[in-house]
Amino acid sequence: MPQQTTPVRTGQADKATLLVVDDIPDNLAVMTEILTPAYRVLVANTGPLALRLAQSEPAPDLILLDVMMPDMDGYAVLEQLRRDHRTADLPVIFVTAMNAMADEQRGFDLGAVDYITKPVRPPIVLARVRAQLELKEARDWLKNKNEVLEAEVAARLKEILLIQDVSIHALARLAETRDPETGNHIRRTQSYVRTLARHLSRHPRFSTLLDSNHIDQLAKSAPLHDIGKVGIPDHILLKPDKLTPEEWEIMKTHARLGSEAIEQAEHDAVKPVEFLAIAKQIAHWHHEKWDGSGYPDGLVGDAIPLPARLMALADVFDALITRRVYKPPMPHAQAREIIVGERGRHFDPDVVDAFIAVYDQFVAIAVRYSEDIPGE
Fold this sequence. Notes:
Blueprint: E1 17-21, H1 25-35, E2 40-44, H2 47-54, E3 62-66, H3 74-83, E4 92-96, H4 101-110, E5 114-117, H5 122-178, H6 185-200, H7 212-221, H8 234-237, H9 245-252, H10 254-268, H11 274-285, H12 306-321, H13 332-341, H14 349-357, H15 359-368
Parallel strand pairs: 1-2, 1-3, 3-4, 4-5
Helix pairs in contact: 2-3, 6-7, 6-12, 6-15, 7-11, 10-11, 11-12, 12-13
């Protein structure tokens, strides 16, 4: 029998499509006669032709596959079908004169869904085909339903994350309303922190911690670093002159106030929230110094959480280049020299090295979110 390169189609468009594979013309004729009244039928008399038809349109809904064929037997055909993502899920019924238990077990191990033994009996063939098509329809329905649900969950998650980001920025803006001269400070420092973290993610000392998710959470948390300023009295927070020692002690409490506010939010959450844990570290310890001379706890070196160490550099750089009521803005290059000069004192040496490497990106961020910030 010559190889058929076009499918044999009969009946209405809503009929399921079956692919019958057998190297014996009489067997193909018998199966076609049984199946044609109820289904569209494609036939192939070799394994390679069967594989081509399985990948063509209309794709078969079910394959009835002979085992004993020359050159490429049914087992080999099924193995190839399962390796190709386009045909991996097609149900296959073996149709064979082989009835040994070992042969059946091999077919099931390869992924066959059923066995029909020759000589075939029309009622058995139709019953087995109908049962497998119904199962396939149910599987396809569940798959489509799952895809719809996954898309809906993804959309809801995206919406939740957007609301979360907006809420974080709203809280940060609340702190800014107490200190209006900071303007785009939270945008700049957030971008600085992300830039440092991305660079340090390639450093052996930080690579295990700074994966893409942690960097995202770190950047998400950064805007809350000064949330505690809402608890500082206006006469101190907005004072245009140098603070007295007593006033400075009160100002320093914003780190604790911010940490406590975020900790309360953690307690109110039904489960741990990663970005809140990071935000609490940043708010509490971003004024600590590498040599232990910072506040509020005088932590030294690696005892200072990494998110706080990144924010410390970002916050100082931005403070230096930004106009405040008590000082003019500093040129970027001069701020860079001060940061480098504090390597190993105020800042983690590796964080300073990262800053030097990405300095041009810092400048670009400062310009992008500028507010009367000079260049070089």
